[in-house]
Automatic annotation (TrEMBL):
PROSITE patterns: THIOREDOXIN_2. This is Thioredoxin family protein. The lineage of its organism: Bacteria, Pseudomonadati, Pseudomonadota, Gammaproteobacteria, Thiotrichales. Residues 9-162 form the Thioredoxin domain. Pfam families: AhpC-TSA.
Amino acid sequence: MVSLTTPVCDFNADAIDFNLPGVDGQNWTLEKAKGKNGLLVMFICNHCPYVKAIHERLVEDTRILRDEYGINSIAIMSNDPALKEEDSFENMKKVSEQWNFPFPYVIDESQAVAKAFGAICTPDFFGYNGELKLQYRGRLDESRKETAPEGVRRDLLEAMKQVAETGQGPLEQIPSMGCSIKWKE
């Protein structure tokens, strides 16, 4: 398992369109997924300890962003399930149900969407404003392979609240850290 960090936010980069099947039986596009004040695109998977450490906060924070700030979220799984059985579509359904994800969980089988976004690890967060211009590319909080203690700053939540209110993300962003995306050969 290779641990990587995300690059700096490329402010105002356009969101990449996609059309991916979700565990809910629907196909999801950029237009269908976005909220009135923005969209949080998250590259996650089932096996990664960095993702497992943030499940509870991820669910809580994305629910707050949706219900109070008009920012929807979508989670994309781009790993090759042949390399990590835990990342299979069936297991995606189980994880989504277990954690009651308040967002679509979709699979990027061809890995073309992850490549187009420039995603490199799980979790990798791309926070867009209402015009679908990139404003955040940072971490959820200071969790790593273990959940950070209660009371830590919720970087992603605070940044996306700012995006909802002003259309712009914070200039200072701490990169997300996680497992490398498992690319097909």
